[in-house]
Amino acid sequence: MTERQYPDMWADPDDDPRTAIPPASGELGVLSEYLDRYRMTFEMKCDGLDAEQLARRSVPPSTMSLLGLLRHLAKVEHSWFRRVLEGRPELGRLYWSEDDRDLDFNGAVADDEVVAEAWASWRREVAHGQEVLRATTDLGAHVDVHGEPAEIRDIVVHLVEEYARHVGHADLLRECIDGRTGQ
């Protein structure tokens, strides 16, 4: 194993896997590229942690943890792409129930099976979201969001914003775990 030049960063700048994402052009391409970079950044911030570290809560009484964020982002991907953009509300909600609307965070416990299931769910939902965006031809098309029309463009920008916010949370959570800082 080679020693890292920047051990406090996620990746040495010359080896950052996000640079392998080819530059995009056009509105949909650029939005998709930003979303994919944030997805990859979030995954990098969770890399190498065990179940206890991923489930470690931030500051009481908050239930926020990296594992909770992973489950939350899987829920967000599922909700926007499957339920809203594909118009399939009958699929139900991922990591949510009437009894526990914060199940994504409250169910984020230090258990290897919970971690494996969360990663599988997130990866499945990300792959599905990428497929939906590849098939999108009109960002100006309208879909129903809670009884109101919204453009697909607005939803994709919201997803970029959602990831950007939670990647910032992940920076702080990871720094508390092992001192690594974001880039």
From TrEMBL:
Pfam families: MST (PF04978). Residues 1-21 are annotated as: Disordered. Gene3D superfamilies: dinb family like domain (1.20.120.450). Coiled coil: none annotated. InterPro entries: DinB/YfiT-like (IPR034660), MST-like (IPR007061). This is DinB family protein. It comes from Nocardioides taihuensis. The lineage of its organism: Bacteria, Bacillati, Actinomycetota, Actinomycetes, Propionibacteriales.
